Every structure is written in C-alpha cells, then in structure tokens.
Amino acid sequence: xxxxxxxxxxxxxxxxxxxxxxxxxxxxxxxxxxxxxxxxxxxxxxxxxxxxxxxxxxxxxxxxxxxxxxxxxx
Length: 74
Prior knowledge:
Elements: E1 2-7, H1 10-22, E2 28-30, H2 35-38, E3 46-50, H3 55-64
Antiparallel strand pairs: 1-3, 2-3
C-alpha cells in the first residue's frame, strides 16, 4: 500500500474514498482510530493508502477532480 493523501480533513477523506471507489480502487484509511490516543482533538492526520500498482491511476483521478494540492509527493 502506498500513501496517497495525508490530512485531518474528514470531509476530504470521504470525498477521496468515494472518488476512488467509483473507479474501482480500494482504499485503506490508516490512523483513523488514533483519536483514542490524541483525546479526540483531530490533530493527528489520517493517511489514505491505495495499492502500489494503482497509485498512478488514483493520483490521476484526484488531479482530474481538482484535488492535486492534496496529494502526497511521490
């Protein structure tokens, strides 16, 4: 799995998950249960991961949808 996006924005995560699911790309949102350790303040970012062989395709989908600024650098 490769990191595609890292953010605290739960709405953005939901949008990314939806866009990728529509295109048949499975995602894993890592660190989403860290709120138990951080006290539910939301300061620890979540990571959206995709299979490594689909990373380029997932990046293109997000760029085409206008989310290029949210992508992690390679």
